Amino acid sequence: MAAFPLRWLLTLFVWTCMFGTVSAEQDLRETRCPLCDMDVIPSLNQTIKGNQAIYACEMAGHLDTLRDPASKILRGAVAVTALDVPYTNAGMACPVCGKTELKYALPWGNRGNQKIFTCSEEHAHLIAANQEAYYEGTTPSHSGEFCDHASVMFDGFQSSIGRTCVKLWFQPWVLSSGVSYALGFVGIVLLGIFLEWFGEYREGMEELFIRNYGITDTSNVLADPTYPKTAMTTLIPSTPGGIQTVTTCTLPTWCTVALTCMYMLALVVGYMIMLVAMVYDSGLFVACILGLGIGFYLFKDTEADSMSGNIDPCCST
């Protein structure tokens, strides 16, 4: 009989410890980055005295910007009457004196919902004047590997070597080593070459469909020099009576569906290249331009009367 109360007390103690641990921290599920309002990454943080911290999202450079007093991200003190989300259950204290009665807050930036809380306006001014003095722990340094944590976008053009890894298109595709980065570089070059080749291939298939499967229809209309001229329409010079013959070509449904599928594939590849450029990794941006340039050199007919296609790879038709 004595074992049951002891087991119950141990269970209650464990649950109390677990609940206390959760309650002592801000709710990171509701925490937003002060620079972009995106969800934060728990490991990207700078701890602050008084059981407080500032968290950043996965975008490269945001944590460094928040840490740096010269960025002037930390705003002026405002009075608070209660802790709001995500701090409603957080166990915090003033970073200056350790008091738990918090009456003022220093918001981080104009976005997000993070703050530093203090017991008085005077202590808030002290933190605003020298925020680094209240940091705890050491600033994370480079691990010595090829790169550190991953990001889908850098803060301006930079190299990922020795800095932040590139997350390429999908969550698991992180270029975290020299080998994976080299493979990604080569793959992007090949993707650009493929896009230029595929553009020429689509146009050739359209001409083939028109020539072999096109259904022509001939009609007579009044002569009009503004009549639309397309690859599917042929104008026969007008007769002395002002009548001109128009021959229009239409394609079977299956041909149109095939051309539509090829068009959508070209859009997918084009947007994938665009997303790589938007990462702002200098090396991968070079890979995008290099691939498209090689593809242009190999497959474009530069001696034609007019070159088709669109120089914008994400919208190439």
Q: Poorly predicted ranges (pLDDT <50, ≥5 residues)?
A: 14-24
Radius of gyration: 31 Å
Shape: elongated
Number of extended strands: 11
Would you tell me the structural class of the helices and strands? Answer: alpha+beta
The helix/strand order is HEEHEEEHEEEHEEEHH
- Cα(first) to Cα(last) distance is 80 Å
Strand content: 15-25%
| Overall pLDDT score | 81
Q: Please, how many domains?
A: 2
The spatial strand order of the largest sheet comes to: 3-4-5
Instruction: Determine the fraction of residues in helical runs and give it as a percent range.
Output: 25-40%
User: In DSSP terms, counting alpha (H) and pi (I) runs of 4 or more, how many helices?
Assistant: 6
Main sheet attributes: strand count, strand direction, barrel closure: 3 strands, antiparallel
Keywords for this entry:
317 residues; alpha+beta; 2 domains; three-stranded antiparallel sheet
What's the structural blueprint in terms of helices and strands?
Elements: H1 3-23, E1 45-48, E2 52-55, H2 62-67, E3 78-79, E4 104-107, E5 115-118, H3 121-129, E6 148-151, E7 164-167, E8 174-175, H4 178-213, E9 215-222, E10 233-236, E11 243-250, H5 253-278, H6 282-299
Parallel strand pairs: 6-7
Antiparallel strand pairs: 1-2, 3-4, 4-5, 7-8, 9-11, 10-11
